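Name: WD repeat domain-containing protein 83
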Amino acid sequence: MAFPQPRPQAPQLPQHLLRTVDCQQGAVRAVRFNADGNYLLTCGSDKSLKLWSVSRGTLLKTYTGHGYEVLDVDCSYDNSQLCSCSSDKTVILWDVASGQVTRKLRGHAGKVNCVQFNEEATVMLSGSIDGTVRCWDTRSRRMEPIQILDEARDGVSSLKVSEHELLTGSVDGRVRRYDLRMGQLHVDFIGSPITCVCFSRDGQCTLSSSLDSTVRLLDKSSGEMLGEYSGHVNKGYKLDCCLSDKDTHVLSCSEDGHVYFWDLVEGSLTLKLPVGKAVVQSLSFHPTEPRLLTSMEGRVQVWGVEPEDAAVEDAKAE
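Structure predicted for WD repeat domain-containing protein 83:
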């Protein structure tokens, strides 16, 4: 005998502030969850990189080695390595446990805006204001990149790696998708400088935000525009956008101190989350749960679905 399926619950959005972390590293340029979402990483304008516990908001380690402000960071799938990039034109590979610099890679001609590991953490990819993406082998001692992608006509502001695909956003107003297996390049012209790109969790779509205060969802294979999301302010800063853990909502930072949540399918504004009075510079959505990180000035905020989350987490940690 078959029972009817339970009605799917409406997705819950992380709108309760669980804790605020005062990072004490100047302005927080980027905040990122690690691969499993138990830790968070902050990039500081004081040249440091910090690793924190999400559940307690405690500082676990500080990484110093960059010569200027740190702009982006990524953690390997096994939490053993970090890669970071900076306005000092370098990319650094770190050993998480010891806090030591494993490799410091030079080659970009200007500040490096974004960096990411591939899935196996065998390659680091970095995008720079010099208009190139450089691919670095994490296992060899070679100081030269294994590949340089120089198709962008202006700075590369954002990049994401997914299996055999690389997505980049550039100030030249184009989103480029490289199929590394097939050796193909697909270009979508948006027109306004791109500040952030990402893949949907199901890998079927790409999301991009640009300086015309609009976030766009494109079908990956056809390039067809599936949705446009606006209402937020993004005119002068490099701000993050992303999708929620189950691809139900589109999120964007805003220069008006809020994070905007839109329903992915309907395009309507679901939630305008007040973070503070300054620019929400960066955000990161938990890989599997409705948790959100935001950064504003020198602080990071951790958001959850309900306020008692914090008490439960602390009880678990005891």
